[in-house]
Amino acid sequence: MTSPERFAALWRSLAPIGNSPHGYHRLSWSYPDLACREWFAEEAADRGLTVETDGNGNLWGWLGDPAAGDAVVTGSHFDSVPGGGGYDGPLGIVSAFLALDVLAERGVRLRRPIGVVAFTEEEGSRFGVACLGSRLLTGALDPERAAALRDRDGVTPVEAMKSGGVEPSLLGPDPLRLGRIGAFVELHIEQGRALTAPVGVASAIWPHGRWRLDFTGTGNHAGTTAMHQRHDPMLTFAHAVLVANKEARLRGGHATVGRVGVEPNATNAIPSRVTAWLDARAPGQSTLDGLVSAIGTRITDRAGRDGTAATIEAESVSPLTEFHTGLRDRIVALLGGAPVLPTGAGHDAGVLAGHVPTAMLFVRNPTGVSHAPEEYATDVDCAAGVEALATVLEELACR
Length: 399
Ligand code: GLV
Ligand code: MN
Ligand code: MN
Hints:
Largest sheet: 9 strands, mixed
Helix content: 25-40%
Distance between the termini: 19 Å
Number of strands: 15
Bound molecules: glyoxylic acid, manganese (II) ion
Number of helices: 12
Shape: elongated
Radius of gyration: 22 Å
Mean pLDDT: 97
Strand content: 15-25%
């Protein structure tokens, strides 16, 4: 049995890492991420798990021999968005270790190996591609493309891993490792105030993605360039932000521009370039495709009128994920009819779902805030999540 106090005690041992008055900064391979990995190794060792880092930088702890196959794996990610919350990701890892404690107390015998995983760069906040570690593992991302990614300082994933003391032995698909997983279950904080019970089960992940928008124009003097003689990419960008919001509302999708860069970024100069990132999501693929295409068309029209140029390029796109219905129904029954809900947030579970029976458990988020410092779940609900995860692991690995 996990009490809220027990949850809180383990939570407290991880929570300070990478925290600040402006939220969490746990970019992959940064010092806080490395400290989280150390924490993982210690918690795993305390529970008798063997720890390894795979060729893509994902961190694994094993109870039992993974070579036996048909393993039941649970876990999530440590990395955060810049200024993010503490629960998105780490809750699934803390809960995994506590669920193992529950299984030990229940005195159950493992019939299959259990793995705890911390996937690398789920948020894509450093290198731009979401679920980088799980995509590489499953072959969903070309390793050459991954190797060519750069963070904002021009550092590649391989360089970042090396500076973190991890030798990336194999950047790319790892079918042997993937083939040993019989089921994957990710526990995660719910992110949209959609869950009123303490614990829910995921049905699907909306199709979603990120597109890079480049607006180019003519840099010039703010005081001497007549208004009608400007080619100002900031105007095209501003229009794009409004258009994205309007099209999303009209079509029942979500569109966000949360990251922008301006060159030269001077108060008294018309910019020469604006680069922004569009995050777009929708309940169905055709809605998402229609949304992104409408935004693109309207941006191009506007660029023509502004005398600027605009390009839109997909950086990280995920199709609709429908979780394994048999596993989902089994878990719902096991948890006494837990509510089932879809989500607009992406997860490594969505990547794994294309390869192994995969399920997700959600823990209630009373405010619905996520990707922000106020993200929060109560210790009582988190403890309920641990119990639910333990029950699922027992069902899948011990029967
Ligand atoms: C991951 O958190 C996402 O952006 O959906
Ligand atoms: Mn997230
Ligand atoms: Mn997450």
